[in-house]
Amino acid sequence: MSTLHSEAARRFNDNREKTTWHDATFWSLRQKRDNMASGLPEWEELREHASQIKQHTITHLADYLEEFSAQLESRGVIVHWAKDANDFNNIVLDILQSHGVRKMVKSKSMLTEECAMNPFLERHGIDVVETDLGERILQLLHQKPSHIVMPAIHLKREEVGRMFEEKGISTEKGNDDPTYLTQCARKHLRNQFMEAGAGMTGCNFGVAKTGDIVVCTNEGNADMTTSMPKLHLVAMGIEKIVPDYKSLAVFQRLLCRSATGQPTTAYTSHFRQARPGAEMHVILVDNGRSDILANDEHWETLKCIRCGACMNTCPVYRRSGGYSYTYFIPGPIGINLGMLHDASRYNDNVSACTLCLSCDNVCPAKVNPGSQVYMWRQKLDSLHKANTMKKCMSKGMEELFDHPQLYSSALRLAPLANLIPEGLTHIRTLNPWGVAHAMPNFAKESFQTMWKKGKLKKQ
Amino acid sequence: MTYKDELLEKLRRNTRKQYPMPDTPINGISYDDTIKQFVEMSKSVGSNVVMAKPGENLDDIVRNAYPEAKTIASNIAELTIATINPDTVAEAKDLNGTDVGVVCGQIGVAENGCVWIPQDMKEKAVCFISEYLVIVLPKSGIVNNMHEAYDRIRMPKTGLGTFISGPSKTADIEQALVMGAQAARGVTVVIREE
């Protein structure tokens, strides 16, 4: 019955206080998102548009990529095409080495996590400095993000304060006030921006018609990253394209409202070319996306804009935390992306869903991640990953429900189960469903019997 | 050969049904008093708003807003109290230590407090490295929503521009909101009649 996810979730729940905090924190984000949504009469229209624009763009992707890259190249931006993670990492390393870069600052990019870029570059002697506060904290603690928008959400201020003291980033002993710690990080990162030979950003949206790279942050760290060093690298998945500014307006309005419940990020920055005297490279990454396009059931995962709303609303994510999932992107969308990346390796996450479909209802691009999890579950048997006990039960129920006489006899005998002591019905290995559940009492007489005896009257 | 040709060919091959763009435009939210909404929204994202009096001197406005500022960076000609110019500094680093940066905004967005700043200066760092940022915005540039804003954007020759909505902020430590993460700790939007 258990999966790697459910086992990890059980451990996460050992700390009741932290679990409750985690759950409440993400639920409050969901509520902030709802406030934003209800403040715009056109909210549902925006979602539908976003979905249609993405469906269109993704099914005309080759044309848009040609237009986009031609626009960038016309202004001297160097465009690279990476087939997979390895390809991407080597392209980045080549650019950095040919410019003699020893230190690179970077803003948040889930794509670089996907490609495991940081450890690769570090092995080649390049110091990579994350500049998003949450990412920097995790980097210094040698941890991975537990959420795609709020990567360090699982940490408490004491843990951050202690680490800042150890690293010499903060000087006041025992001061773990978030404002103080943020100011210390500001000073620490300011120096990194000044020293770095290159800056890397991700890309929230690439505008085909104009060649704009659009990056949204609250801290302004992508802007510092591109304002100081004279070499700007952009890591971009090929699905990030939108056709034009009209389309971009739809996504800009949806992204932050869905993600954190703010009306916008503090910064929505456009880069069409390198700044005066600087050089800009855009690395377009496939890494399996072109295969997803051919997947009839799951191609719409390519519509995802990585806002994290599906995680914030997910009852399983909220109560199990990002680290309980085996893929680096957790929550409903992560379950799907993991399966698409390597189904034999990441299928443990498919259990992390109650099929409540709350995620389908908040997703700004209508990716419907929950409905897709349902489809993966139908395929577990063909992956030899269906649970044996559940399979037996399904078979048994099939027999029972296909044979009315057998069903009636079973119903007559069912009250006998009331006599079995709880110690037997709740043996965890025999009956995992017994965990945290009381056994219901069977009625002495079934509805069917009562009906036949005329004990029930038609109203 | 680069991967480009192989990828484009594969994408075309792997595309099943093709979908059209939505054909009806979005009817974006609009406000009875767009200026008032912009001012309220700007305040709620953490900005100060100053309504300039007709003919009021920009030097005075900046002085009043930040009386203790020593280093003031700007390429706006009428700002005579500027001590450093982002167009003429040798390096972006030279702007480090700026107390107040003063830049021109073109479009203000009432729904979210965003101001479009065309980054026509040599070193756009002035928009982010300054401790505090003053954005000068013509009243006529204020629009209802992002649809209207994106219809109006004129990208400068540098090919760079940004929407800024309030100060730099983070909630990465325990969801506690802190202003002044990496860029400006505070923002003042100055709205002027043309």
Automatic annotation (TrEMBL), chain A:
Record keywords = 4Fe-4S, Electron transport, Iron, Iron-sulfur, Metal-binding, Repeat, Transport
Q: Please give the start and end residues of each transmembrane region.
A: none
- According to the UniProt entry, the coiled-coil residues are none
Q: Which stretches make up the 4Fe-4S ferredoxin-type domain? A: 295-316
Cross-referenced PANTHER family: LACTATE UTILIZATION PROTEIN B
User: What is the designated name of this protein?
Assistant: Lactate utilization protein B
Organism encoding this protein:
Hallella faecis
TrEMBL record, chain B:
Boundaries of each LUD domain copy? 94-191
What protein name applies here? LUD domain-containing protein
Q: What organism is the protein native to? A: Hallella faecis
Pfam families cross-referenced by the UniProt entry: LUD_dom
**In which domain of life is the source organism classified?**
Bacteria
InterPro entries registered for this protein in UniProt:
FTHF_cligase-like_sf (IPR024185), LUD_dom (IPR003741), NagB/RpiA_transferase-like (IPR037171)
